[in-house]
Structure formats: C-alpha cells, structure tokens
Amino acid sequence: MGQTGSLFPIEEEAQPSEPLSGEFAHVALNRPLDCEFTYEVPSELSAGAVPGARVAVQFGPKREVGVVVGRDTTCDLPAAKIRSLQAVLDERPLLSAELLTLTRWMADRYACSWGEALSAVLPAGLKRERSRRVIRMIRAGEPASAEVLKELAQKSEKQHRLLRTLLEIGGSIELRELTRRLNLSDAPAQTLAKKGLVIIERVEVSSDPLASAEADRGRPERLTDEQSACLEQILPSVAARSGQTFLLRGVTGSGKTEVYLRAIEAAVEAGQSAIVLVPEIALTPQTVGWFRSRFGEVAVLHSRMTDAQRLDAWLSVSTGEVKVVVGARSALFAPVVDLGVIVVDEEHEPSFKQGSVPRYHARDVAVERARLEGAVCILGSATPSLESRARALSGEFERIELPKRVGDKPMPEVEVVDMRTEPRTKADSGIFSARLRDLLGACVERGEQAILFLNRRGFAPVLYCSSCREVVRCEQCDMSLTWHRKIDRAVCHSCCEERKRPGVCPSCTSPALQYLGSGSERVEQALRDLMPSARVARMDSDTMVRREDYEETLEAFGRGELDVLVGTQMIAKGLDFPRVTLVGIVSADTALHLPDFRAAERTFQLLAQVAGRAGRSDLGGRIVVQTEAPSHPAVTHAAAHDYDAFAEAEDGVRAALGYPPHGRLIRVVFESEVEQAVTEAAASMGAALKETLEGSGAMVLGPALAPFALLRGRHRHHLMVKLPDEETVQRATEALKRLAAAESSVAVKVDVDAVSML
Ligand code: ADP
Ligand code: ZN
Ligand code: ZN
Fold this sequence. Notes:
Blueprint: E1 4-5, E2 20-29, E3 36-40, E4 54-59, E5 62-75, E6 87-88, H1 97-109, H2 114-121, H3 124-127, E7 134-140, H4 146-155, H5 157-169, E8 173-174, H6 175-182, H7 187-194, E9 198-204, H8 225-240, E10 245-250, H9 256-269, E11 273-277, H10 285-295, E12 298-301, H11 307-318, E13 324-327, E14 339-345, H12 362-373, E15 376-381, H13 386-393, E16 398-402, E17 413-418, H14 434-445, E18 449-453, E19 462-465, E20 482-484, E21 489-491, E22 498-500, E23 513-516, H15 520-530, E24 536-539, H16 547-558, E25 564-567, E26 580-585, H17 599-611, E27 622-627, H18 633-639, H19 643-657, E28 664-672, H20 675-693, E29 699-711, E30 714-723, H21 726-742, E31 747-752
Parallel strand pairs: 1-3, 10-15, 10-16, 11-13, 11-14, 12-13, 14-15, 17-27, 18-25, 18-26, 24-25, 26-27
Antiparallel strand pairs: 2-3, 2-5, 4-5, 4-6, 7-8, 7-9, 19-23, 20-21, 21-22, 28-30, 28-31, 29-30
The site of adenosine-5'-diphosphate has 16 residues, from helix 9.
C-alpha cells in the first residue's frame, strides 16, 4: 500500500502519541500527489467502502470522486484533521483487485500517482458522479455562404476555420470532436451560433455505429500449417492460464487475425473473456465486424465514443454479459470477467503510448496485466518493435512466426527509384518518377486499383523566400507553415492555426515567395493533371473530417468506383482490397531525417505496412518506393522484405549508443511561456539528476532545446536519460517524481519509455 497522506501536512508536534483506532479508508484521487488520502468510514458506509469502490470525498473546498485502495483500523493522523467519506458511489466495487494492482504498478513504472493511473482505467462517465447522456451536434446554418465566409476571414481566424470546415463537411458533427480536431475552445462555435451561422443541437446519444458493424470473415475450414503450428503453442498456454506473452511475427497477409480469433475462441469456450487492442486508426467497422461475426456480441471501446456509450460498454463487460472487447489503447482496462486472452495487434505502433498522464504504453501494460491475471498475451506485427524483439530473444516472450502469405501468395515486388537522378518535368512538379507514371497508367488501364502514399498533408510544406532565404513560420510554434491550396491558407500543423497566405515575405517584404515540396493535396492535383480520366480520391485528415467520410470513401473504393486512392498514414493500415496491384510511395523520406533515434525503424515499419496493401489477391502486386536515400538500410531492407536483416543492423546501432532496447529511456520535457524559467528549471533539474545518478552508469543528455522548441507559444527544453538497468530506472523515476513535484515555475513532463522525441 502506498504512503498515507492527509489534507494537511503533518506537523510534528500535532502527532498524537497513540494512533487512532476505528474504520479508515485509503482513497486515491486523480491528482499529481504521490500519496493516498485517509478518510474515516462512517459505519453505514462500511460495507460498501471496500477496495475498488468509488467514493465521494471532500478534498479542500471541493467534492471529488476517488477510489478506495485500502482499509485500515488505525490511523496516525490527528483526529481533528480526519474527514469522513461522504458517499459510496457503486453497489459493488468497480475495480477488481487485479486492476488495483495493475494501476499501482503503472504508477510506479510511469512516475505518476495511483489516482492518476486509476483515472486511465475508469471511463470518463465514472470519474464524475453523473455521466453525460446528451451530446452537442453542430452544423452550418442557412445564412452561411461564401460571402459570409470571406467576411469572417478578415474578422476572426478561428470562427472562419470552424465555419469553413463545417461547410466542407456539409452535414453535422459532434461539437466536441470538431473542436478537438481544430484545436479550438467552445467560444468560436458559441459566437457563430449567436449570429445564426451555425446551429448547435443537443441530442440523446444514439448507439455507436461501430457497435453494430457487420463484416463477415468466414471461418476457414482449414488453417494453414503455419497457423496450426502457432496455435499449437498458444492454446495449451491459454488452457494452463500461464500468463505467458507470445510475439507473433507474421508478414502482411499471413493470416494473423485468424490466429487471434482461434485463440479467443478457445478462451471463450472455456468461459473466459478476451480483449483485442488495435491502433485507433485500424478500428473500423470491418475490423469490429470480423470479431462480431465470430463471437456475437462484442463491446467496442474507443476515444470517439460519448461518455455514456463508453460507460454502457464498460458496464456490459463488467457483468460478464459480453466476453469480447475490441478497442483502442484504453480498452486494455476493460473490467472483463476472467480474462483469458489479450491481443495487441500492430504492437509496434507508437499510438499505443499515451501522450498525457499517465503516460503508459498499452503494449507493456498488456503484458503485465496478462501476467497478473494468468491470461495469454499475443503481440502481433509484421515488423515487431526492437523492444519486443529483444524481449523475445531473451526468452521472456515466446516467439511464433507466420513467414508466408496465406495461399502462398508472393510478397509484392518492390522497386526503389532514386529521385536524385530523376529528371524533373514541369507537368507533375517532379512528384512522379517515369517508372511510377508508367505503372500507374498501365494499372488503371487494366481496370485495377492503385494507392499513392505520402505521409504529409497540404499542398506545399514550405513557403520559402528566395530573397532573404527565410522560411515562413508560425509565431506560436516556430514551425514551417504549410500552404493548403484549396482553402488558400497557410496552416501550422502543430497548433492548427491558419492565416491568409502571405503575399510577400513577412521578414523582408519581398514578393519572391516560393512554394516548395509536396503534400498529399499536391500529389492529388498532379495525379489529376497526369490522368484526367482516372477516378481519384484523397484520404487525409483534411478531407476526412468525419469518420463516416472515411468509411464511405473506403466502401466506394471497395466497390471499384475509384481507381486511385491518394493518402497519408490514414491508408497505410489494415486495408485489404484485392484489386489493388500497385502501391506508390511518393516519398519514403518524410520521417527518415527526424531527430528521433527511432526514425529508421519508423520508416522501415511504414514502408513494410504500406507495401502490404498491394498484391493481396491472385492479381499480384508491385510497389514503387521513391526516395532520395536509396541505400539507406530502412529502404533497402524494406524493399527486400527482410525484417531480420533490418532489425539486426538497427539493434547494433542502438547497442552502440545505449538506446532502447539496450537499457531504457526517460525523457523529461520542460515547458513554459517564459523562456528563462524553462532554461533555469531544465538546468537545475538536469544537474540534480546527474548528481543522483552519479556512478550508476546512467547517462543524462541535455538539457537542450527540444526539437519543437516553441509549441503553441510555450518554450520547450528537454532532458534524455539513458538507463542501463532496472535498478537505475527505479532510482531515476523516484528522483524525477520528487524533483518534478518540487518544481512549480514550469510544467515538467516525465515520460518513462518515451516514444515521441519531438
Ligand atoms: P494479416 O493480418 O496477417 O495481414 P489477414 O489476417 O488479413 O493477414 O489474412 C490475409 C487473408 O487471408 C485474409 O483475406 C483472410 O481472410 C485470409 N485467410 C486467413 N487465414 C486463412 C486460412 N486458413 N485459409 C484461407 N484463407 C485465410
Ligand atoms: Zn524574405
Ligand atoms: Zn503553430
């Protein structure tokens, strides 16, 4: 049990000599204070205030919801300072002993309080005493027109952005989703509503469309030999409740999903439950439908649900009524009865790491939850992270493999085109190589389909002044602005702010501004110019504001109403379209030079993933990778479909530099609007940390400017701590908790096992 705290610091002289006796509860609150709080339990609440139950307590002047994590019959605090529990909120405890243990483990591992870890587990509707059942939908009103929009562009950038987006959508959308996406508060929407330009309506929540999605994946009569071999290893472990983790590496199209489905079948037949985690972007009606077609009722949990929907799903699994849960990151904490199997599909995905407190990695927590509950954990990927690979090599995870595509379909052939030697033609701004142009033409001619991938949206990512050689930047973020041509605005991709396209250079007023580089919007334009008769759709977060848009476009593509899909990472995952025979990677280099030690690994993973979209039927498939770094290992090994060679080489690089999986890594980010405060806090905490870790073999790098040194008006510095072993990690985490709690002038973000380096 964690240490005991009270609302007030304990004064030495106030300590009673004899501890109080009675009924006390330790309550974890969602606050960044690394302790629990003790309350007296009135006798009428004694039966309900058991570990795992939510309670209402007075904390300072406020009433808050907390979770009982322990009971005691004595208390060391002075009687005058103890308050009583006000209410027990649940008839039976919501959280099992295992989930309490798991969240305690998370608090220790990710340097947060127990209450903060618990807040990740409870759906939003349970963090408050009453949950939201009504949501607000917004749509453009009648008077909104092009004229109005033009006028608004002069007056209010935020209102303009909101109304413009609504007009583009041409329908209604949940207000909260829209404001989150546009990074706006409610204010611009409220102002527009007063003017009658938008209409905001409160509606009763209807059910989640994903919750009723249908997509049949017939149960194959026969497993492939490789699938059978994998299951021969997994199933005895499920029966034995071994708590074992398997790392399933299977190339794209090798039938990993069928392995998951059979393992879950075995668990369900034995009366157990299962949780399937997929990256948010892969949580489509198709994916959910596969599970529903096998298991009947399936609970879905993801971030776009309303509180009430999430609460319903949560409660339906906690009673054991629903046994299979499919969802994004937070579905990991579903309170299922008797957990038998956890699947983490695409385990290498960075989106399994949560960016805010508690900054947990769902894959690593899944392994721990499985261990605690005797469940089998299956981590699946075509390109496992180097961290999971290392744990498999050490024997901690069991390795299983699906080395071939189902039906012996060959892996698609990959051609690498060196864009440095490609002649630039005016016609397509040098976006397509001659080879890609030819293949695209032939593919569409044959009536087959193509996918063009570029992991960057907008038209031109750089506005460059050839007179003073400056790049036009966002004043809030110090990031290059991207020109979006259709809306003719210069957009900052980090804070979402837009402004009028500068007619002249903001630094020197020269009119010599150039629009350099290309994003998905430019690729779409170049493609339309190249093949005017081809039916083209673009999928990125600019064109696909609503989930429905995404699904409708994919359905149209599936029905053959489109020839080419142009898109960002939104189209990299999970799509399974038999008529796709060509995938063009317009540039493999977008992530290659990021200041992140995982840049090569990310590039390799992305190339393998995108390449996996082609050649999924007997029609075969071909990939064209355009790059200016044709001999980079991430490119050459991806072209050869050689995961092992890439992983081995990359692991050598990490070992030499002491990066994960060779030791662990903690990143600490310091943020404030006041630059000097950031510099000082980072320097003093860096020095203190170096002193604490002296002689441990740990390496403290920095403080230095973070790669995004200015973000939304906040200056940012960071420290990177490389830790050779678990004991040192422990020491560093303890020290950082202490130091961060003592720092009040700037925001300190401690990110254990950080995934983002920016
Ligand atoms: P992965 O997830 O490894 O990329 P999928 O699970 O999508 O691969 O499987 C690829 C394709 O093979 C799917 O269309 C699936 O229906 C099919 N498939 C999987 N297992 C079998 C099997 N045993 N027999 C026939 N087809 C199968
Ligand atoms: Zn200039
Ligand atoms: Zn910005």
